[in-house]
Amino acid sequence: MFLPTAALALLATTAGVQAVTVIPSNSFSSLSTFESFWNYLYPWGSDHNGSARMVGSSSDHSHINVASSTLSLIATPTSNPSPPTSSANPHPAIHYASGAIHAKAQITVTNTNAYTISGEFSSPTAKGTWPAFWLTAVNGWPPETDIGEWKGTTQNWYNTFNTSSVVRSDLVSWPSDLSFHALKAVLTAESNGADVRIDFYMDNVLRATQFGQGFVGKPLWLIINLQMEGSSGSPGPSGTTTYKIRNVQVTRTGS
């Protein structure tokens, strides 16, 4: 097959680009490996915008557990929490103890690199459960991009926030049987040098494409958490809820 000169040049350029592994797919293979790549809780602490307070440390794995190469985030009802309300807006009452982690490596898309973020998820979808797999700004807010977000329904929400009111959401059906499904996001800079294109995949099928305005050069946290109630409705479950994650991987191409 004959290829024009321009195509040959593109192939040669692409062939020379090697992917750098930022987080390997085996980061949940052991507790020591997990702690090499991930931190406990949210980057800002234990509370956020739902009724679960995150609990976990190197000596407390009751809500953040790693076993059989799988991360389990576990929410349980709690009584008489102190303080009784979340320290984060909109300061909901705390009804659960749960788990959150964030990657030690920050993700910054530039004009000379691209990122691929992927994993497999067994996500609860009952009313009052609010698990997520998402990127949010290190400095200020937005940017925010939600690769996986389940708000108490059998739908995954792909979201990109350009401002608090300018948000693109694409909803994709998600099974309720707690089987594992693969999610992936590919983040690349647009030709204008400012915006980021985000291609979202489920089970290797492209499901949505969104654009983050001004996301280039903005460092992002990668967070996995099991929040409760809030946007997912209330009351939440009266028993234990478990969110399972495996094979999370982050790779970077370019410099």
From TrEMBL:
GO annotation terms (biological process): carbohydrate metabolic process
UniProt KW keywords: Hydrolase, Signal
UniProt xrefs under Gene3D superfamilies: 2.60.120.200
InterPro entries linked: Beta-glucanase-like, ConA-like_dom_sf
Gene Ontology MF term list: hydrolase activity, hydrolyzing O-glycosyl compounds
Transmembrane intervals: none
Name of the protein in its database record: Glycoside hydrolase family 16 protein
Signal peptide (from-to): 1-19
Keyword Signal: yes
Keyword Membrane: no
GH16 domain residues: 1-253
